[in-house]
């Protein structure tokens, strides 16, 4: 039986968007044709045809020894064009900068995009050794970063289980992360009231994450701080979490006043 997408003529569009998301999720190192086909469930000829069309239109480019795929110039230009309607970075900048100054460490703003988290902005503190574990614009499966873990733990159980099931094949790309490790981190986050990556993914790095409060019943943004392990221990960890929660509340009000979509 023909599914609803194909019957309404949107299947090709949905497949193309899926391919774009997969490339975006791997845009730092690139992604091969074989990996695109495997992760999307598309047959290699279909994936190759879509990738080729996206390259022709400038949304993707191909380079590197394995001819990996990356986002292209048109994707960048479209992002710039959309920016005037999504001034999230400007609204959130003061919050991130205050936290970076107060803690000396690296602060991230993360939003949810389907089963992924996306880094929207980053602020670096004054401590000389920085944990720059994520790039702005980088996509990762929810739970593989402190901000994404906070968003994952805040979900209703059924939704969280579905996201974790859909992402399980992607987890082993990120340090020591596995299904068992993620289960443990989510359970701990639910108990603590904030996300904690205590060297669970990268042994030398600790991350803390809190969601930005919302009146909509679901959370779309999170603030996280990542640092070397010794900087987020004991009493200091609790102090930093308190600062993060206070700034998250301020950010929530800022977004609400600005009429932002997820405040």
What does this protein structure show overall?
With 263 residues, the protein is of the alpha+beta class. It has two domains: 4-78, Arc Repressor Mutant, subunit A (Orthogonal Bundle), CATH 1.10.10; 86-258, 2-Layer Sandwich (Beta-Lactamase), CATH 3.30.450. Helix content is 47%, strand content 17%. The protein has ten helices and eight strands. The strands form two sheets. A six-stranded antiparallel beta sheet has the order 5-4-3-8-7-6, sandwiched between helices. Strand 1 and strand 2 form a beta hairpin. The radius of gyration is 19 Å and the shape is globular. The model has no long low-confidence stretch (mean pLDDT 87).
Gist?
The chain has 263 residues and is of the alpha+beta class. The protein has helices at 4-7, 11-25, 33-40, 44-56, 73-82, 88-103, 146-153, 157-167, 179-192, 234-258; strands at 60-63, 68-71, 106-113, 116-123, 139-141, 195-198, 205-211, 221-228.
Shape, please? globular
Structural domain count: 2
Question: In sequence order, what are the helices and strands, one letter per element?
Answer: HHHHEEHHEEEHHHEEEH
The number of helical runs is: 10
Mean pLDDT: 87
- From the alpha carbons, calculate the radius of gyration and give it in angstroms: 19 Å
How can the largest sheet be summarized?
6 strands, antiparallel
Distance between the termini: 41 Å
Number of strands: 8
């Amino acid at each position: 039986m023909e599914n609803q997408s194909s019957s309404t003529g949107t299947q090709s569009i949905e497949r193309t968007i899926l391919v774009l998301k997969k490339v975006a999720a791997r845009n730092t190192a690139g992604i091969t044709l074989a990996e695109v086909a495997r992760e999307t469930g598309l047959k290699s000829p279909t994936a190759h045809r879509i990738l080729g069309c996206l390259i022709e239109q400038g949304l993707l480019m191909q380079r590197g020894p394995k001819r990996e795929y990356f986002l292209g110039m048109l994707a960048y230009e479209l992002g710039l064009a959309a920016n005037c309607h999504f001034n999230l970075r400007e609204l959130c900048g003061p919050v991130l900068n205050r936290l970076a100054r107060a803690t000396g460490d690296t602060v991230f703003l993360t939003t949810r995009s389907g089963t992924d988290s996306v880094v929207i902005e980053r602020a670096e503190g004054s401590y000389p050794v920085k944990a720059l574990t994520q790039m702005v614009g980088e996509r990762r499966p929810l739970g593989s970063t402190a901000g994404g873990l906070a968003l994952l733990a805040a979900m209703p159980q059924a939704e969280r289980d579905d996201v974790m099931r859909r992402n399980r094949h992607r987890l082993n790309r990120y340090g020591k992360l596995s299904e068992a490790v993620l289960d443990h981190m989510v359970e701990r986050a639910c108990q603590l009231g904030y996300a904690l990556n205590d060297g669970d993914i990268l042994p030398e790095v600790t991350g803390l994450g809190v969601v930005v409060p919302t009146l909509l019943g679901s959370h779309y943004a999170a603030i996280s701080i990542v640092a070397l392990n010794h900087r987020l221990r004991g009493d200091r960890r609790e102090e930093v979490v308190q600062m993060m929660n206070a700034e998250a509340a301020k950010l929530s009000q800022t977004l609400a006043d600005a009429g932002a979509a997820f405040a």
